[in-house]
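Example record

The entry below shows one chain as it appears in the dataset: sequence first, then C-alpha cells.
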Amino acid sequence: MKKLISILGSTGSIGLTTLRILDLKKNYFIPYLFSADKNYNLICKQISKYKPVIFLINNQKVYEKVKKKFKKHNTKIIKSLEKKHLKKNSDITVVAIPGIEGLVPTILMIKKSKKMLLANKEAIICGWTLIKKIAHKIKTKIIPVDSEHFSISKLLEMHKLDEIKKIYLTASGGPFLNFKLSQIKKVKPKDALKHPKWSMGKKISVDSATLMNKILELIEAQKLFNIPMNKLDILIHPESLVHAILELKNGLKKFIYHETSMLIPLANAIFDNKVEIDSFLKPRKKIQNLNFKKVEKKIFPVIDIKKRINEFPSTPIIINAANEVLVDQFLRKNIQFLTISLVLKKILRDRNYKNNAVKQPNTINKINEINNWAKKRTLEQLKQLKLYA
C-alpha cells in the first residue's frame, strides 16, 4: 500500500535529497503536502513532476504567480497551512524548513502525521516542550534525521543512560579549520559557504564555519534524548565519516560511521532501517584513516557558549535567535565573521537577558516573544557597538 509523504521545505537540500528517494521508489509513495518559499522555477518543476495534493507557498508574490500558472492543475496551491487543508493524515512528514519559522508548521503537522522526520534544529531548540507533549498525546513517532542525532539515536538503542560516560558529536571544522586567526579575521561570506564535505544551505554553512551548528546540536541532543550537558561534547573530525561517538563507563567506545550524504539517515528513517542503501548511492571509498582532535577556542570562540546553554529555560531560544540575526548580517556583508561570536557572547551579558531567559517557553506566543526580543536586541547591540563592516 502506497504511503502519503509530506515534505516541508521541498526545495531545500534536505527536501531535494528526500525527492531523490521518491524518484527511486515511485511505487511506494503518494506526494501529499509540499512546501517552499520563493524558488519559483523549482516549485513549478515539482508541481509538474510530483503532482502533490497540496503545495504550500509562503512567499506572497510567488504564491500568486504559481497559483495563476497552475489554476487548472489538480494540485491545490495554498499560502498558509491550516488544519482544514489536511483531509488525511500523512504517513511520513519530513520537516526541513530552516529557522524558527518551521516551528508552527511542525506542531501542526505532528497532529496530522504518523511519523515525523525532523531536520529543523530551531523547532527542537525553541519548541521541544510543545513538540514532545503533542507527539506523546497523538502518538506521532519523532525521528531526528540530522546525521549526528540519527547516529546518537542508533547508539542509544543499545545502552542505558547510566552506562554512558560521554557522547561526542563530531564536527568537520568547516572551511576555516586550518586557518590562522589573522586569516579568519579577513574571511568573506563566499569563503564561509565553501564547505569541504557537505552541500548545505547558506545559513547552516556559516554555522558550520563558526561551529555554532554544533552548539545548537548539543542543545538538540540534550532535549531529544534527555542527556545531561556534562555527558555531551564536541570533537573535530575533518573526514566527516563518524557522526557520533559513545564512550561507555566500561571502557568501550562505539561510533556510527557513514558517508557524507543525508540520504543515508533519511532513507533509514523513511524505511525503518529496512533499506538497501546501494540502490540509492553508488559505492564509495573504503574505510579510511580517521582523525579526531579537540576544539581550539582560538579558531572557534563560540565554544565558550557551551557552558551557558542550561543557564535558564529560554537561554537556547535567545542564543538561536541572536545567531540567526548575526549570520544574516554576515551574509549581507554588514558585519565581519568574528563579530558573530563576539555579539553572541555580549547578548548573554545584556542587562535584560535574564528577564527574558527565565521565562518558560511553554506556548508559541512566549517563544515568539523571547525570540523577537533577542533578534531586536542583537541588532541594537550591533548599532551601539558600531560593528557593521
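Notes for this example: Residues 107 and 131 are 6 Å apart (CA to CA). The longest strand covers residues 29-36.
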